Amino acid sequence: MTDCPVFSPRRIYAMVLRHGYLIRGSWTRLAEMVYWPFINVVVWGFTSQFMAAHSDWVSRAVGVFLGAVMLWDVMFRGNLGVALSFLEEIWSRNLGHLSVSPLRPLELVSAMLIMSLIRTLIGMVPVALLTIPLYHFSIFTLGLPLLAFFANLMLSGWAVGLAVSALVLRYGQGAESLAWVLIFALAPLCGIYYPVSVLPDWLQAVAWFLPPSHIFEGMRMVMFDHLFPGRQLVVALALNLGYLAAAVGLFLWVHHLARVKGLFLSMGE
Predict the structure, then answer these.
(1) What one-character DSSP code corresponds to residue 218?
(2) Can you spell out the DSSP letters for 75-125?
(3) What average pLDDT does this structure show over 17-29?
(4) pLDDT tens digits, residue range 166-207?
């Protein structure tokens, strides 16, 4: 057995080269490196721009931001709950077993959505209660509209989560990061911390096709003007139902392709 040096630059180079090949061979890994700094700059750039022009918001910023953060987390957890439920089947090499079991694809989708709701409630209810003694703010003061906001944002999260699951099933585990990436790509357009009117005109046209944009505008209507955002809720629900139906259809179609091509048995750790 030959002696090996305690510290070998060649071995370090080999490992760096290995990961370099991984990055070069996966556009999702490469894009992710640029993605997070870009999203942070865009979101907080628009937020700063709006706050600078509307100093009257400063006195109410804590309540608005806390409400926005918690409602956004509903959508984020709704998406992640679906995607993680699917990814856990891949990580445990259970997807192939499920594909030959009596479980039907639509039943798998239903189970993923239910688990997403459970995960979201477990995560959000304690946080909502904790903000009351810590910051003297209660999201429950939104009243009945809060239930509509929650339901719509869950539907939005489910649509994104199912789309991500379909992409992972089609393109493999290299697309796993989309579970986090895709949802945050929508954040700058959803008007979470600022009105949609802050965006450039051409981006506003895109933002109004996103259900969360209507929900966060509705949240500010309730908090500032004490109005029921009926129109925003109806539009958001209509968009959500359309996107969710498309996402379910996409997942079922990719699931069928995966069964035909035998992709289930090749996925896992």
Answers:
(1) H
(2) HHHHHHHHHHHHHHHHHTT-HHHHHTSS--HHHHHHHHHHHHHHHHHHHHH
(3) 66
(4) 988 888 776 777 777 788 888 888 888 888 888 888 999 999
Q: For residue 180, with 0-12 CB atoms within 10 Å meaning exposed, 13-18 middle and 19 or more buried, which class applies?
A: middle
Token pair listed for 168: 């992972």
pLDDT exceeds 80 at position 97: no
pLDDT in the model for residue 157: 94
Using an 8 Å Cβ cutoff, are 189 and 203 in contact? Answer: yes
Nearest Cα to 42, choosing from 187, 163, 172? 187
Short-list 78, 86, 75, 147, CA closest to 111: 86
This prediction's pTM: 0.78
Ranges of each domain in the chain: 37-266
Residue 231's identity, in one-letter code, is R
If you search the block for the tokens 């370099």, which residue do you land on? 20
Q: Give the distance from CA 67 to its chain's centroid.
A: 17
Helix (H) or strand (E) holding 145, with range, is: helix 145-171
Cα separation of 187 and 47, whole Å?
12
List all residues 6 or more positions away from 31 whose beta carbon is below 8 Å from its beta carbon.
Answer: 181
| Cβ within 8 Å of residue 42, ≥6 positions away | 188
Token pair recorded at residue 266: 């090749």
